[in-house]
Specification:
alpha+beta, 2 domains, homodimer, Amidase signature (AS) enzymes, 18 helices
Chain lengths: ~550, ~550
């Protein structure tokens, strides 16, 4: 391999980017049989897969994790076959949505061969993920591969070893087949960088795939991966999952291993980021989390809280109580989101098996002020310096978030004060939640309280490029460190969503968001997946998943 | 009550202190029958109780929590009788060791009466702590009472309500009978302030009771309380417990409620402090922790990790494996500590029921550098300003810790770096612990690893006043956020500990510590309790307690 072109070696940022793209393209070119260029693809790219891939490849890549696992474990499907199919579909996803930083054909096929041989020899799989191809957001580093977190200035840095989480997935039998794009700074709800340009939405390429795990969103949305690894500090797993119509979970932070990942603001503890899954199925997300927790990652990474995967049935002899948050009272969601929420609520109410109540938001505007301030306690200096080090231009959404009006350059005392403000908000929100209880048990436990909050995953469906600005529906739960599960419900329909609705804007963010809908309408967001979010209290990840399983059974969601 | 004398009202610091002492003395004077002054007490004050209190009062106050609880619950003892006895013994403790900021006779007796009436009327106790008197370190505020955390400048501040933890204990049936002293800044391993002067050790009043929960240490050591509430960020529960020969536990931080306490550096997250119990029995500590966790405090205080009290038997079908840390290789412990440790190890080895191995310290000097730096990220400005605001003099140990050579005035980026250094150390220590495993289980779990570390609780027994300088044996486990349980083993004996031992000092701290032993010898520390510490991995509090129960059964500790 030729020496890497880097800023340190004297190259311009453009040369560094060109070299990275050339390198990526070479990894695509190694895919066999090769994937052709697609000259004038339709805006909705999903059906193109059927024109390019074999029937077997379509079948494999459209299988969910829970279908592939037993087939691979029994040897009904070889890992090599599965990995080849996903490699080809991932290469096609790259050509259509620009979601890949590199494919890993030689590593992946060598690993797949090893797994097939292991199964042959031992008659049993390596672990619960035997043969499952997994895609990984780039800043979760892999041994000896470039690790730049979206900054031109960091190109040339390589990970000394696979990140802790990848070691565990590897030991469980996973195959890493693709690395995916992320935005400059990792702090957009879109995926746009000077290294690779813009990642688009496979359902409508005029829209963003979301971000910052937007490479994962587009790739899993296109089914070039059935399980991907993303990261989330303000919506970065849930935005791409929601935008691309897949399942995505931001677990409570401090549960899943993050040791070894690369990003700015290391040592920052005010808002703790987390890793989590994106998958074509809920079972994929569940298996991912359970596999990681079963390995007791806290023994190697003592920052993690030693909560094992909770097996208990949270709703045994108890009716699920769902609080519905229609609108955070800061930015009103676009009509398709409200329609999807209404569909869910109507179905839940019709069976009577689930109790549905209204969830009143508690100062979500204040929550945004607090978190937008705490993201960059150094005033954003580290990120700014990293951008400026290479002379690369600022992407519009880097400008938007790093220079948001709530950012300040903290001293230690002012940061302590801001942290206390966060804690006071968390206490107030806990009280708000506790106030939904209908009685108090013998040990002071709250009975009859809301179990989970059903809410939007954003103020609209996948936004037009560079318009994803209101983080509140996602970052709200990062500030509180509540787990959030995103799931597909429906898609934008020109007829159903074509009506006119008027709304008097409450503030600048609300105005800007509503004007987008007025400008583009249902036609502009055609075919975009509509997703919603289910949120639980801190460390109640398993309860959120169980609640969703009940909701899925009751409603039959998704409706497409 | 007269208006409080405060700095804000124009008083000098001396006038403020004099007023607080006058107020305290008035609360003592309200105790009936009154406690006389003791003109020339012996250095070891313990036996004086028998001269002053009635036989019944001696019997009650020398009963452990687990003995009192069922008697109170059944009505065999009235709460009023119990509270009166402890109030009188606490008043005597004040006269002998200067450990009280105020007694609470009217509140406590009113509460006791309520509890007795409740039991009469309902035929059942209010909760698991029905009628148990509990003493509380002053900075854990009580409604409408002064709340100053040891700073003259904060006198006049009152708590708007009882702290969260006190609310829970109250609901469980507790009676608060005494508030106890703490040092200026809360950051000494002794208890010396300009408000109340020096708190001394009931076993030898030339020695410190330890700190910063030194009022609790002296009071519980003198049996003026069977259960007290302390706080610990570097040894502040364990130092006084160890010095005064009682049980004390620093639970893993983020388990027990702290909401509402007062102290400097609020919002600091680099080294998380915790609340915990001091008690005349292990059962007292256990009941305290279990009662708090059973109330699910995380629902009101979302910073806490929702770990319920773990009921599982950690050593079912498994031999306890103890790692013995003789010496942290920074400051060598005085001979009595090593003798006590040797007694324990000999007994453990003799039965063969417990596996005993050596625990090699991993860079405990580095651990001290990291934590001593992280305590005061603002360079100690907040504490310094608080002292200087009233013109009160700096106590020697405030000077020692706030101006220690590792303190720096951090910027946000330098604090992030220091935090990452902490995390790297934690990972390295976890690896060090993992390396004691003898095999790896099917899910990667470590088998045969050390379960708990048995180690000193300090570099000697209770130090002479103003000489408690080496925090390493305690702060080590705060940096790692490991739980630590301190328990009494023996006492300094002029004959057994009278031998001469030479030691070549490794560094200044070691030199200073060893010279103290050379200067004072066993005679100087006569009758001082010798205590040891049992430490577990993060959040393994219940495992540490179970391990201690096994060790206690095997060795019969304490040996006095």
């Amino acid at each position: 391999m030729a020496a890497r072109v880097t800023i340190a070696s004297g190259a311009t940022w453009q040369e560094v980017a060109a070299d990275r793209q050339k390198y990526r393209d070479a990894t695509l070119a190694a895919i066999e049989p090769s994937i052709p260029d697609i000259p004038s693809p339709s805006l909705n790219t999903i059906s193109i897969a059927k024109d390019i891939l074999t029937t077997e490849e379509i079948k494999i890549t459209e299988s969910k994790v829970e279908v592939l696992v037993p087939q691979l474990a029994k040897g009904d499907l070889s890992s090599v076959t599965v990995v080849k199919a996903f490699l080809r579909r991932a290469a096609l996803a790259q050509k259509l949505t620009n979601c890949i930083t590199e494919l890993l054909p030689s590593r992946a096929l060598e690993r797949a061969k090893y797994l097939d041989d292991y199964l042959d020899t031992n008659g049993k799989p390596v672990g619960p993920l035997h043969g499952i191809p997994i895609s990984v957001k780039e800043h979760i580093g892999m041994k000896d591969l470039d690790n730049n977190a979206g900054f031109i200035g960091w190109v040339g840095n390589t990970a000394p070893q696979d990140c802790h989480i990848l070691q565990i997935l590897w030991n469980a039998g996973a195959v890493f087949h693709a690395r995916t794009t992320q935005p400059q700074t990792l702090m957009h709800l879109e995926t746009s960088s000077n290294l690779y340009g813009v990642t688009t939405n496979p359902y409508n390429t005029t829209l963003t795939s979301g971000g910052s795990s937007g490479g994962e969103g587009a790739l899993v949305g296109f089914k070039g991966s059935c399980l991907g690894v993303g990261t989330d500090i303000g919506g970065s797993i849930r935005s791409p999952a929601a935008n691309c119509g897949v399942y995505g979970m931001k677990p409570t932070a401090l549960r899943l291993p993050v040791l070894g990942w690369l990003g700015p603001a290391g040592g920052q503890e005010q808002v703790v980021p987390t890793i989590g899954p994106l998958s074509t199925s809920l079972e994929g997300c569940k298996l991912f989390i359970k596999t990681l927790l079963d390995s007791k990652p806290w023994l190697k990474e003592p920052t993690l809280m030693p909560f094992p995967w909770k097996q208990e049935d949270f709703f045994k002899g108890k009716k699920l109580k769902v609080g519905v948050l229609w609108d955070d009272e800061v930015v009103k969601p676009h009509p398709p989101v409200t329609r999807a929420l209404k569909q869910m609520v109507d179905k839940l109410k019709s069976t009577g098996n689930v109790e549905v109540v209204e969830w009143k938001p508690y100062k979500h505007d204040l929550a945004w002020e607090i978190i937008a301030n705490l993201y960059f306690c150094d005033g954003g200096k580290e990120e700014s310096d990293l951008i400026d080090a290479s002379g690369e231009p600022w992407r519009p959404l880097s400008e938007y978030i790093l220079k948001n009006p709530h950012v300040e350059t903290h001293t230690i005392p002012s940061m302590y004060k801001a942290t206390m403000k966060r804690d006071a908000y968390r206490v107030a929100y806990a009280e708000h939640w506790n106030s939904t209880a209908t009685s108090t048990g013998p040990n002071g436990e709250l009975e009859g309280a809301v179990d989970v909050i059903l809410c939007p995953a954003g103020p609209g469906v996948a936004p037009k490029i560079d318009t994803a600005k209101w983080w509140g529906y996602l970052s709200q739960w990062n500030l509180l460190n509540y787990p959030g599960l995103v799931f597909p419900v429906d898609k934008v329909d020109v007829v159903k969503d074509g009506g006119k609705e008027s709304h008097s804007p409450r503030n600048e963010n609300d105005k800007e968001n509503w004007e987008l809908w007025q400008k583009y309408g249902a036609e502009g967001y055609k075919d975009a997946p509509i997703s919603l979010q289910l949120v639980g209290r801190g460390f109640e990840d398993e309860k959120v998943i169980q609640a969703f399983e009940i909701i899925q059974k009751e409603t039959g969601v998704p409706f497409i």
